[in-house]
Write a structure and sequence with these properties.
The structure holds two protein chains of two kinds. By secondary structure, chain A is mainly α. In chain A, about 70% of the residues lie in helices and about 0% in strands. In chain A, helix 1 (about 1-15) runs parallel beside helix 8 and helix 4 (about 85-105) crosses helix 7. By secondary structure, chain B is mainly alpha-helical. Chain B starts with a helix and ends with a helix. Classes of the chains: A mainly alpha, B mainly alpha.
Chain lengths: ~200, ~400
């Protein structure tokens, strides 16, 4: 239990997938102009991460990892080199399936999430979380917590960013820096403030 | 008489700074000097109009006034610690003069370099030079250790002014406190000059016997390393840090941040004039107590030696290190703090609580107030947004 809490705090604050590892920057910069859409995308990412990370865990440890195919009578096979492509395929497939399921059963949620759901299929934070999950040898329960809390950390970062950009609507940014330039600088300053938690060992 | 002469002087020179004239580029500098002497006659062009004698200039001058007690005490204390450590005379004048030698160059570099960037941006981007810089340029050196190399002061204030403020268009448009942005940059870029035991006291002259026995640790460092359970208070006392001493501030630390008493005088000025928000300050104090008391009480019953700071009485957190200075002068910065009332309470409370959490649980940083304020600066637009939304939701049915 303590272990799960530490994973949660670690991935929301200390090792924030966005501000500590800089994954998922593209949608972070593109979608943070409006607070409501930022919240929508944040929820969608959290949702997708909490499904894809455990799904990839199952696939990795029952199909790909060295010796994982023992149940099929093939203990000597190591398909680990396939993990990148398989993870990407799994994420894309799950996002597509989710889109169809949501469209069928909850049209209001579908319209709310709109274009963000397909966008998530190419969000590197999703793939990054699955790869970190393998690297850090999490077990299944830990991977569920890790996926969900990484998504919450990403959501925290993008919603904060949207709030700051709302405040900066009246800012007078030098001509060459408008748009992406100033957003990158804001992201850097945010990462500096998030250093608050670096050094805490949980 | 004097004022008439000055008025004439400025009126005669104004024509050189108009568009198309020789000094057109540095008009902001001319206007800054002129408005230093005379209140500008301009009024707001569009409504809404608010008739009030408070303007940015008076607001900033009041903050400067409130900064004078910690500034003078900081000069005295830097000299006192330095003379104490190097075994020199502790006579008041000697101490004060030594303090001036330590502190004045730091402030001059901070003002000089910062003013250069301010004028450069104002001239090129055609906005006014803001008095806000007078505050930033003084706050920044007061948070630094007395031994800071002057070139690092220049680097820090440059980063603070450019990336903390000017890149967003100047005063009022930034989202982080510029002075703390500069300090945080120095803190991560040159940690050797910003933390540790050696940076808090200037040791001058020959190495005397007094200097050999000298430790230089700050109270926060002493309490973080004091081994076993329940002895933090005694190890603080052994190092000479009693509660009254910590309150008055005669201990090694950043130039202006050591004396809780002097900061309280400043807080009184700021609250009485309504310049800074008492909500943020009281929220901060509540946050410290709320975060420190549960651990303290728990620790009285089940001692845990792995986190010695837990056995420290919560009141110590209020007077030690930079908390008082940070919550009074830095957290109340009207630009980077939230504007709504409940948000201010939440903001102050979170700063206090985070400061204690960092001091107690984060072994990487002995002091947490700087990053706690910067961290909450990030959330102040969100706090404002949601408070406004909540108020609107309550009012809509009545419309």
């Amino acid at each position: 239990m303590e272990n799960l809490i530490s994973i949660f705090l670690n991935s929301v604050f200390l090792g924030n997938i966005l501000l500590a590892y800089f994954l998922g920057m593209c949608s972070f910069l593109a979608i943070s102009r409006n607070l409501d859409t930022a919240i929508g995308l944040g929820l969608a990412v959290t949702f997708v991460l909490s499904i894809t990370t455990p799904a990839n865990w199952l696939i990795y440890y029952y199909l790909l990892a060295p010796g994982a195919l023992e149940w099929a009578g093939l203990p000597g096979i190591d398909l680990g080199f396939l993990k990148f492509i398989i993870f990407i395929a799994v994420i894309a497939a799950i996002v597509q399936a989710l889109e169809m399921i949501i469209d069928r059963y909850s049209p209001p949620l579908y319209t709310a999430l709109g274009v963000f759901l397909p966008l998530i299929a190419v969000n590197c934070a999703i793939l990054g979380t699955s790869l970190f999950m393998v690297e850090r040898n999490y077990n299944f329960i830990e991977s569920v917590v890790f996926g969900a809390s990484s998504g919450m950390g990403w959501m925290l970062a993008i919603v904060t960013m949207a709030g700051i950009r709302k405040k900066l609507r009246y800012a007078n940014v030098p001509a060459g820096l408008e748009g992406f330039g100033i957003s990158m600088i804001i992201a850097g300053l945010m990462a500096m403030a998030f250093m608050l938690f670096s050094g805490i060992t949980l | 008489m004097m004022m008439k002469l000055l008025r004439k002087f400025f009126d005669a020179r104004r024509k050189h700074f108009e568009d198309g004239k020789k000094f057109e580029k540095i008009r902001p500098l001319f206007e800054a000097i002129e408005t230093f002497f005379f209140i500008p006659g301009n009024v707001t062009q569009n409504h809404p109009h608010v008739r009030d004698s408070l303007d940015l200039k008076r607001l900033m001058s009041t903050v400067i006034l409130a900064l004078i007690p910690p500034l003078f005490f900081g000069i005295y204390n830097s000299g006192y610690q330095s003379n104490l450590a190097s075994g020199l005379s502790l006579n008041f004048m000697a101490v004060f003069v030594n303090g001036l030698w330590i502190v004045i160059p730091v402030i001059m570099v901070s003002y000089g370099v910062g003013f250069f960037w301010e004028v450069l941006f104002a001239s090129i981007r055609k906005h006014n030079i803001s008095e806000g810089f007078l505050v930033t340029g003084l706050l920044f050196p007061l948070t630094l250790p007395p031994t800071i190399p002057l070139w690092q002061v220049a680097v820090g204030i440059s980063f603070g002014v450019i990336f903390g403020k000017e890149i967003f268009g100047g005063t009022g448009k930034n989202f982080l406190n510029p002075a703390l942005t500069g300090r945080a940059f120095l803190f991560f870029a040159y940690p050797g000059n910003m933390t540790g035991e050696r940076v808090w006291t200037v040791i001058s002259g020959m190495k005397s016997p007094a200097a050999d026995a000298f430790s230089g640790a700050t109270p926060l460092a002493v309490s973080a390393v004091s081994g076993a359970f329940n002895i933090v208070k005694s190890s603080l006392a052994k190092a000479g840090f009693t509660f009254p001493k910590l309150f008055f501030g005669a201990y090694p630390g950043s130039i202006g941040g050591t004396s809780a008493l002097m900061c309280l005088i400043g807080a009184f000025i700021l609250i009485a004039t309504g310049i800074a928000s008492y909500r943020i300050m009281f929220g901060g104090v509540l946050g410290v107590l709320a975060a420190a008391y549960p651990g303290y009480i728990f620790n009285q019953f089940y001692g845990n030696s792995s986190v010695p700071m837990l056995s420290l009485h919560p009141m110590y957190h209020l007077v030690m290190g930079g908390f008082a200075f940070g919550i009074i002068y830095m957290a109340t910065d009207p630009v980077s703090a939230p504007g709504m009332n409940i948000s201010k309470w939440i903001y102050g409370f979170s700063i206090g609580a985070l400061t204690v959490l960092i001091r107690v649980f984060n072994p990487a940083f002995p002091e947490g107030i700087m990053l706690a304020i910067l961290f909450m600066n990030l959330f102040s637009p969100l706090l404002d947004h949601y408070e406004i939304k909540a108020i609107l939701r309550k009012r809509v049915p009545n419309v």
